């Protein structure tokens, strides 16, 4: 079955065709970065307008690269949450309209389920595993029992990890998007130059797997001099290396706690921050674990992850009604909240 997947939740206009949830026939990602760069961050209104302008050519290009006509597509899927409302609405409305006009099934997809699925496009991964979802909007540690069955164990109590990368980069004038730039500058820095604090959320077991990045962000931005170690220089490279080291340590320590507590030895990462080279090397050091990262092209936003996970809903006969709407947020995780409320599609 060939599914056309559309993704427009943030600043990438993306469309892919994936066969049977596995074979990527095309994967077109049109990035809007140059249009947001001058503002040092994503401008929602510009994002929506660019999506509206680009969606048709991007979908046409995805069909062309897959060497298929629209008639040969079995179903259409779009991200419907979470993300920027105006941006989401473009891809969702386009997908629903296309499905309606061609009388094909439509499937609305939770973006985070897409990120969790990305590694499955190139690996056969049995469930359950411990999922690590790290993006611009989310930092989630979950026990993953199936493609739409995630038990959230921990999340951030304030900023997401990607947000921290982006804010640090913006403050030091390093550029946008921050994560990739910090990752690159950190290669020439010394992580030992600063002793930034690793947040402690250890009072009782309430936050056993939770993380926090707001304190680290403040320390790096406003108090870097306080944490500079004698004999080291305050260079951008050193700041990036030490910040990245602390941010990765923060999330990896909680992730490993989940691994130890559950005894599950497979870890699967997803989301833009899963591209981070230090996060990858830190987990690679744990040779006793099977840590799986998506290829770099599938870490950031793309249509293939949406088409891939949609296939599994479709196979189960689970399609979305034409009045399915978009939603900017998924409910903040609270203990006791059922995972379906967090990750469910409607
Ligand atoms: O998944 P994604 O493309 O969009 C969201 O769903 O948010 O993630 C974007 C985030 C941004 O915060 C970006 O700075 C971060 O991923 N990112 C990275 C790297 N590449 C992208 N963060 C750290 N290291 C990277 N190499
Ligand atoms: Zn994303």
From TrEMBL:
Compartmental location: Cytoplasm
Originating organism: Treponema berlinense
HAMAP family: TsaD
The keyword Coiled coil is assigned to this record: no
Cofactor(s) needed for function: Fe(2+)
Alphabetized Gene3D superfamilies for the sequence: 3.30.420.40
Cited function: Required for the formation of a threonylcarbamoyl group on adenosine at position 37 (t(6)A37) in tRNAs that read codons beginning with adenine. Is involved in the transfer of the threonylcarbamoyl moiety of threonylcarbamoyl-AMP (TC-AMP) to the N6 group of A37, together with TsaE and TsaB. TsaD likely plays a direct catalytic role in this reaction.
Keyword tRNA processing: yes
GO CC terms of this entry: cytoplasm
Entry's Gene Ontology molecular function annotations: iron ion binding; tRNA N(6)-L-threonylcarbamoyladenine synthase activity
Catalytic activity: L-threonylcarbamoyladenylate + adenosine(37) in tRNA = N(6)-L-threonylcarbamoyladenosine(37) in tRNA + AMP + H(+)
EC number assigned by the record: 2.3.1.234
An example Gene Ontology biological process: tRNA threonylcarbamoyladenosine modification
Free-text comment on the cofactor: Binds 1 Fe(2+) ion per subunit.
Family note: Belongs to the KAE1 / TsaD family.
Source superkingdom: Bacteria
Keywords: Acyltransferase, Cytoplasm, Iron, Metal-binding, Transferase, tRNA processing
Residues where substrate binds: 133-137, 166, 179, 183, 276
Database matches in PANTHER family: TRNA N6-ADENOSINE THREONYLCARBAMOYLTRANSFERASE, TRNA N6-ADENOSINE THREONYLCARBAMOYLTRANSFERASE, MITOCHONDRIAL
Ranges for domain Gcp-like: 23-307
InterPro entries: ATPase_NBD (IPR043129), Gcp-like_dom (IPR000905), KAE1/TsaD (IPR017861), TsaD (IPR022450)
Principal location listed in the UniProt entry: cytoplasm
Protein name: tRNA N6-adenosine threonylcarbamoyltransferase
């Amino acid at each position: 079955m060939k599914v056309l997947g559309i993704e427009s939740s943030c600043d990438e206009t993306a469309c892919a065709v994936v066969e049977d949830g596995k074979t990527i026939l095309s994967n077109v990602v049109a990035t809007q970065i140059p249009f947001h760069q001058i503002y040092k961050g994503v401008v929602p209104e510009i994002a929506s307008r660019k999506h509206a302008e680009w969606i048709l050519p991007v979908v046409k290009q995805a069909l062309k690269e897959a060497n298929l006509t629209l008639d040969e597509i079995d179903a259409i899927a779009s991200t419907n949450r979470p993300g920027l409302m105006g941006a989401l609405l473009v891809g969702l409305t386009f997908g629903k309209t296309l499905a309606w006009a061609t009388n094909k099934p439509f499937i609305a997809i939770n973006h985070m389920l897409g990120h969790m699925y990305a590694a499955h496009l190139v690996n056969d991964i049995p469930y359950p595993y411990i999922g690590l979802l790290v993006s611009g909007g989310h930092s989630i540690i979950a026990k993953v029992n199936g493609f739409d069955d995630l038990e959230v164990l921990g999340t951030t109590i304030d900023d997401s990890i990607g947000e921290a990368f982006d804010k640090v980069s913006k403050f030091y004038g390093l550029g946008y998007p921050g994560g990739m730039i910090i990752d690159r500058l950190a290669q020439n820095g010394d992580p030992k130059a600063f002793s930034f604090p690793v947040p402690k959320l250890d009072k009782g077991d309430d936050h056993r797997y939770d993380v926090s990045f707001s304190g680290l962000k403040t320390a790096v931005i406003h108090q870097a001099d306080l944490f500079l170690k004698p004999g080291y220089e305050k260079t951008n490279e050193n700041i990036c290396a030490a910040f990245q080291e602390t941010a990765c340590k923060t999330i990896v320590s909680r992730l490993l706690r989940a691994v130890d507590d559950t005894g599950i030895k497979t870890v699967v990462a997803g989301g833009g921050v899963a591209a981070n080279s230090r996060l990858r090397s830190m987990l690679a050091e744990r040779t006793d674990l099977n840590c799986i990262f998506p290829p770099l092209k599938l870490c950031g936003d793309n249509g293939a992850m949406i088409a891939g996970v949609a296939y599994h809903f479709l196979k189960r006969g689970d399609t979305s009604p034409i009045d399915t709407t978009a939603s900017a947020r998924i409910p903040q995780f609270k203990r006791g909240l059922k995972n379906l409320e967090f990750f469910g599609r409607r």
